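Lesson 9: reading folded outputs for more than one chain in a single document. The general rule is that every protein is listed as its sequence immediately followed by its structure tokens, and records are never interleaved. Here is the first one.
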Amino acid sequence: MSFGSDEVNFLVYRYLQESGFVHSAYTFGIESHISQSNINGALVPPAALLSIIQKGLQYTEAEISIGEDGSEKPIESLSLIDAVLPDTVEQRKQSQSKVAQVKTEPVSTNGEETAPADGVNHSGDRMEVEEGLEIPSSKATVLRGHESEVFICAWNPVNDLLASGSGDSTARIWNMNDTTGSANQLVLRHCIQKGGTEVPSNKDVTSLDWNVDGKFLATGSYDGYARLWSTDGQLLNTLGQHKGPIFALKWNKQGNYILSAGVDKTTIIWDATTGRCHQQFSFHSAPALDVDWQTNTSFASCSTDQCIQVCRLGCDRPIKTFQGHTNEVNAIKWDPQGNLLASCSDDMTLKIWSMKQDHCVHDLQAHNKEIYTIKWSPTGAGTDNPNAPLILASASFDSTVRLWEVERGTCLHTLTKHQEPVYSVAFSPDGKYLASGSFDKCVHIWNVNTGSLVHSYRGTGGIFEVCWNHRGDKVGASASDGSVFVLDLRK
């Protein structure tokens, strides 16, 4: 048996990624020089570290259960800490053998059954949902092909092409326009030049975005390159100016520029036609995590440096800097009119900013763990009334989603059916419904007006991303086990 620190580091890095500790994984990856290892990440299965630990635990259990005389001593299932403290296990066994063990169900002092000590409902592995809300398997199309976790997915804005990006160093385009129920997939391999030949980059695809008319797909990768693809899977351009992983990229509405954010602390506006760097902005003091266009030439960026910078093409300094968060800022989003900017952070707060003032308009504190992402409703208040107040949704590691009425700075609804961190939320095109995806493997669909659960579906892996198609009758989701699935909500 032999293994090196590179292999251990890679498995720890993957475990951090799969557990949702994205920024910890990034920091660990940099410090342990993951990018310089020769390990082909596409071949390493999900949950590899846990799998190998589990095997080690089983071996330790077997070892402890065999006495010095070769006789077998029955032992209870070991915990991971037990496995590294075999002497303590032996002492506990000896003390337990002196006391008769009576197995009883836990009962509270008022005669009601108490919850298990771990706080988890073990009555079944399925989520508790109301009658008739669960989406039947006949309405779900599971798309297999990725060889690693699928971090992101996005629908084409004009037809039912679903793009997905994975840790297997590929993006894929799934054609869901086919009424036969099967989905053709185009594999977009992310390769780099080595010695005059193209080889797989073996790096995660971290971000993707369709342009406004759905003709082009842009992807960002941990290999430091952004790439431009056609809908038939052809690589049109490779954008190489970042020095390190790209964390986010977005098309502007006009479709002539692409914006990206990277670990190199910079943001770049690219000319979509030529693929050249139009302007690079170096105003953050730490990795830039997210970007969002305000207009076709101005944008905001956020960073682990706890700051938000608003920049404009042609300006050599930020036109505004927002400070107030006390931990890294995970995501930023302009409202549909570009008047207000929402930000969310590991400091557990959600803040609303205006270009008219330096301090935040609202400091919304209700979540009790990190807030991973946010989304604005497209129309406001879950109605077809464009003048209704805008709603903001926030997804947190505290397992809840909150809906906020931003004008008053109040929380309208707290959505509490998830049991693990919520990584993604998305409003339907008409703003009436919200989809949420969590690491409890569930996608829930909620009524925005009432906050009630409308539909629920349990997949086979933790959900990283959810998204609606342009008609609002299908929801796509991507998961940690390499699956992508589409829920058909048509009656």
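And here is the second record, again sequence then tokens.
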Amino acid sequence: MDKRDIIVQKSCGSLQRISELHPLFMALQYPLLFPCGEDGYRLGISYSENSLRNSNSENPRDKLTLREWYAFRIQDRPLSVEFPTLLQSGKTYHQFLVDGFASVESHRLKFIRYNQDLLRVDNYNNLRRAVERGDVEPSSAGSRLIVPSSLVGGDPYMRVNYLDTMTICRWFGYPDLFITFTCNPKWPEITRFVRNRGLNPEDRPDILSRVFKIKLEELMIDLKERHIFGRVRAVVYTIEFQKRGLPQAHILLFLHREDKFPEAADIDKIISAEIPNPVENPVLHAVVCTHMIHGPCGTAKPRSPCMVGSTCSKHFPKKCTERTTIGEDGYPIYKRSKTGPTIYKDRVALDNGSVVPYNPYLLLKYRAHINVEWCNQSKAIKWTRLNDTTIVGTFQHVRLFGGYSRLTFTTGLPHDRKVCFHLPGERGVVFDDEDPIDKVLEKSSMGVSKFLSWMKINSSEEEELQIAKDLLYCQFPTKFVWNKDQREWTLRK
């Protein structure tokens, strides 16, 4: 089966297969949510007047997409306009979101699959040899494009972003801080919203994701503009979703060389792994006990989710030590006093050995689980890549997502930062399946690539381009930008 097998029974008793794009699919699938049998999405829905999308482009869209229709359906509206049956339906709302996302992703993949005959890829030399032997039929050259890198979540997309991250690491060195920021479903903005509607936080995954995104953007401002850890040269983060659905961000921070924390004593200035004194700092003590205590686990609770066999997979509780040191493996061993306060969780006494490292300022401001770790090695990069598959059919069947799922990548380098190299005549060429090969080779852009343009600039005698001769190829995007229309590198302004 390369598509969903949706069968409906007519009132006369006969059966009929329908597509998820059928206007009645959602009404038939969720009769409790759409008791009046309202029409859902259908191809060809037009926008209202004066609301064309991409109106500045040469080909503005005037039709509603499937994703936009689902985004429209899950918006809050006044009771005078529409009663929020869908938004009040709890777990059924989760299933609706999953079904909707599956339909959108399936629609995108079908477009790629059914348009595979329009695009092929081969290298320049192979196309030239085909023309020399008189073979100009495009169907006889190259191979199909399967999943393009423009498909968010696909393997090419993941690979490109991972390589971008490695390029940042190659340029700025190892990351200095690794931060994990997890959504707190008890944030007052969330609890206030759901309480007024008689819901629980988990009933509105869209609200959890929106509030988390707002908090994450504020955290980025703290890091990049307010410089709470020092001047930042680059930031890389990826958002993923826990098995219980809460979004969390893994953040890598690359600091200015003068603002690093090279000594073990410097780490104590920004990272703590101890329970605060409840008398001297009662507020911080309460927040740490709520969000930054691991366990109990081990012999006290052998069935804890973190347990693998008879040991904790996170290596808690940690050993207590009176000062911060750097272990032989390059990981920090944080200061954890043996005489610190003790708290009870599930009737088990926990000390500083169960504290997840944190930054007091961030913890007090965001009141959520924010793990801050000092790092100076490449192993932290592993958190920036998620594996997926490449083939369309397989890709469609192995995706795992829930009502919260959404993935975001961002990097700190300029947009045109990817560079590639190739042997003479071995550059890749993408062409339409209906274009004769000889016509493809006649295009002026066929003779130019980023790599060849880079070599041309290096051989230029123009005074303003002499700066190129002092740059390595991987450094080139810091001073030049690739102009797609003119197919050449130009100086950054």
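What the second record shows: The two ends are 52 Å apart (CA to CA).
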